[in-house]
Amino acid sequence: MSASGMILIFGASRGTGLETVRLARAQGWEVHAFVRSTSSALESLGVHQHTGDALDAARVAEVCAKCSRADAVISTMGGGPIGASSDFAGVANAVDGAKAAKIDRFLLVSSLGAGESRRHASERLLQAIGEILEEKTRGEEHLLASGLRSTIIRPGRLVDEPQPGGGALVEDPGVHGDLGRSDLAELLIASIKAPQTENRVFSAVGRSFLDAAAQPVKF
Fold first, then answer.
1. Can you list the domains of the chain with their CATH numbers?
2. Which residue of 7, 141, 160, 198 is most buried, as measured by CB atoms within 10 A?
3. Alpha-carbon distance 181 to 50, whole Å?
4. pTM for the full predicted model
5. Which residues contact 79 (CB under 8 A, 6 or more apart)?
């Protein structure tokens, strides 16, 4: 085992997931990734890759069992047809697999506009991805009902560039703003062993989008 520990990541092959893998490996974490197909980028980072479909509950459970000594499971999954998407069905399978394998720490990347933050979403956003946000809400609810030590992070608009001052976690569901994917990766990795983030739901945006009264989580 690495000095930092071991994590299993769903959605690791691109975007936030890949940024999270890069940071985790740089910090010495042993990383296992559940992927549809193997990735040369993940291979070059020394990641243990497990292929499968997140909608295949049996395969997800099998991989979770193989990774039962993991400190945490992280899901950055998203996308797919409504009703059979990784936003809900895939997340639910990962949650159930982690619970069966007795991995009791689970971090989920959702989205602003999911859950109680929906009332703060613009009509334009709801028209564009309202059904997806409903799927993400169902995924959140499944995790919250699981009894696992959960952290749900709802990022704002994800961009490639890191934000000035980095990202921040706040419990205000009404905040809006951009967040760099690498900023989100830093928040995820920092949260794994931070008890102050357990069993809580956060919004995540760049610090420059917060007002003076905001109280971000301190790591």
1. 6-209 (3.40.50.720)
2. 7
3. 23
4. 0.95
5. 85, 86, 87
